[in-house]
Each structure stands twice: as C-alpha cells, then as structure tokens.
Amino acid sequence: MTKAPSVWIVVLNWNGKTDTLDCLRSLRELRYPERRIVVVDNGSTDESVAALRPLASDGSVELIELSANLGYAGGNNLGIRHALERGAEFILV
C-alpha cells in the first residue's frame, strides 16, 4: 500500500484568538493520516499565544511564536519554510 503524501496546514494568527481556536478545532477533526498543523502567531497582543500553547504542548499543533508582526506574506512564508524543512510534500495555507 502506498503511503499518503505529507500535507502541512499553515494557520496564520494575529490577534484572532477566537477565530483561530475555532479553525483549529475544525482542522483537528480531519481524518487524513499524514496531516500536520502549524500555527504562526504573528506577534499577537490579545492572549492568543497563551490560548494556543496548550494545543502545542499536547502535540495537536506546532506553534511558532513571533515577537513582531511580519505581515501576511512574511508569516505564511515562515510557516511554509518550517513545513518544507520537515518534509512537507504539500502545503495548505
């Protein structure tokens, strides 16, 4: 049997704690066996990071915490680079 391709999902967050947590709840329901989720926090000031850390510690997502907002492209590019360095075959932004 052929192994399913590795798909990484990059979620960018900036002061969107509620929406990001809702998004992650939905993404964790995916049953695709080779999926990984990485959240890039783009320097949030709304307690997003505190809410996301438990998800990172339980292994359901990877969290990249930035001290400054790199903008949409900068944050996503960082998440994409992170996924590629870890063997992503496909990336969903």
In a few lines, what is going on in this structure?
With about 90 residues, this protein is α/β, with parallel strands linked by helices. It has 3 helices and 4 strands, in the order βαβαβαβ.
Helix-strand sequence: EHEHEHE
Shape: globular
- Approximate helicity band: 25-40%
Unreliably modeled segments: none
Multimeric state of these chains?
single chain
Count up the helices.
3
Strand content: 15-25%
- Give the terminus-to-terminus CA distance: 28 Å
Major sheet: arrangement of strands = 3-2-1-4
Give the class from helix and strand content and strand pairing: alpha/beta
State the major sheet: 4 strands, parallel
Average pLDDT across residues? 96
Work out the number of β strands.
Answer: 4
Radius of gyration: 13 Å
Essential attributes:
alpha/beta, four-stranded parallel β-sheet, globular
Question: How would you explain this protein's 3D organization?
Answer:
The chain is of the alpha/beta class. Helices cover 39% and strands 25% of the residues. The protein has helices spanning 17-27, 48-57, 71-85; strands at 7-13, 35-42, 62-66, 90-92. Strands 3-2-1-4 form a four-stranded parallel beta sheet, sandwiched between helices. Strand 2 (35-42), helix 2 and strand 3 (62-66) form a beta-alpha-beta unit. Helix 1 (17-27) runs parallel beside helix 2. The longest helix is centred in the C-terminal third of the chain and has 15 residues, at 71-85. It is globular. The N and C termini lie far apart (28 Å). The model has no long low-confidence stretch (mean pLDDT 96).
